[in-house]
Amino acid sequence: MTTRRVRRKPSSHRRHGARSIGLALAGGGPLGGTYEIGALLALADSVDGLDPTALDVYVGVSSGGYVAAALANGLSPTQMYRLFVADDADATMKPGLFLRPALREFARRAAGLPRLALDASIQYLRDPFERGAMASFATLSRAVPTGLFDQRPVDRFLRRLFAAPGRTNDFRRLRHRLYVVATNLDTGASIVFGAAGFDHVPISRALEASSALPGLFPPVEIDGVHYVDGALNKTLHASLALDDGVDLLLCINPLVPFDTSAGRREGLTLRTLKQGGLPLVLSQTFRTVIRSRMQAGLDKYGRQYPHADVLLFEPAREDADIFFANVFGYAQRARVCALAYEATRADLRARAAALEPRLRRHGLALNARLHDPARSVTDALCDARPLRFGDGPRGVRQAARDLARALDHLERQLAALRSPRSRAAPS
């Protein structure tokens, strides 16, 4: 398989002499993107000097492309939480946006069914004993839709989102480098939107192509070529950022195989995933394939890019809450985001001794908030910079909610101080 890539000059916003930082985000369906938002909230909250919206290079595949494109457009993890995760009346991206039937695809396939039925019948009647009924009527399989859901509503949403002041739907106008990877359906090659020759494609359209998982979404046609999910060849495509010369590459992979033996130690009663039926068997198989493929790539990076530090963040293999969450569901998205926040903070604490000198080389440092056992994703959202009042009525409502959350947090802290245990504690 080949990947079209390009080296570009450093971004004009980069300070002279500053070390380059990149971010590579894997796919994983809607909840994979949700996990990545939670992990980014934890990284931004726990690492001093790290601004996820001001990195030099972003690489996104499938659902990770949505998160990468939002960051490259200046949308912080906190703002993404409010747009994509928050379960309230003002959440902009509604769950149903991804689940609208591909009616145009259904109609197009249905229109061709009479002709296909006639062709199948003629093939059978010409040689019924040699071909057999099943071989002849296999022609009818061409009438099966190539995808169940329509991505055009998502494209329209993204075009509106990136049309806001200070944002763009044009790769060439971004202040940061953004690469979104898709797969050419007819050749199997990985194509990098945002690279030379493919940077004229609107970002929203590139995201639509990169996340067109076969069977769920029809292939996306761009300039006469059909594209499907970018994760078919590689899980992260992290080498795109490393080829661009980044010194520190942060990688987030939301899908890992589940270890039932470790899970049982945590109280899980399921003895084998086979008990869960075909969905769990397929989920474990898919996760194992993409994780092993990604690990093979990461193992090479130390030799190919000795100048770079590559840091991977992903769920623990015994994390049953993450594994059993519905990858394509939405009801659990706030919970998954909170779990990702907690898991990433736990990972940072566990690896602090090894991470601190590597982060220090790039002007970053773990902060004291990381070691606060009571800190939650709600605290991180409250402490983050709120939306500007200039964002209009939505910004005013969000600011009001930010204030309400902050007051709730303060009230909880005061209640804890007034508790009998606090009063009994020695001074």
Distance linking N and C termini: 66 Å
The average pLDDT value, as a whole number, equals 79
Number of helices: 17
Structural class: alpha/beta
Our estimate of the beta-strand percent is: 5-15%
Strand elements, count: 10
Rg, rounded, reads 24 Å
The helix-strand sequence is: EHEEHHHHHHEEHEEHEHHEHHHEHHH
**In terms of per-residue confidence, which ranges show pLDDT below 50 for 5 or more consecutive residues?**
1-17, 386-398, 421-427
Query: Given the C-alpha coordinates, what overall shape results?
Result: globular
Give helix % range. Answer: 40-55%
The biggest sheet amounts to: 8 strands, mixed
Tags for this entry?
427 residues, alpha/beta, 8-stranded mixed β-sheet, two-stranded antiparallel ribbon, globular, disordered N terminus
What does this structure look like?
The chain has 427 residues and is α/β, with parallel strands linked by helices. It has 17 helices and ten strands. The strands form two sheets. Strands 1, 3, 4, 5, 6, 7, 8 and 9 form an eight-stranded mixed beta sheet that branches. The chain has a two-stranded antiparallel sheet with strand order 2-10. A hairpin with a 5-residue loop joins strand 4 and strand 5. Helix 1 packs across helix 2, helix 1 crosses helix 13 and helix 5 runs antiparallel to helix 6. The radius of gyration is 24 Å and the shape is globular. The N and C termini lie far apart (66 Å). The N terminus and C terminus are likely disordered.
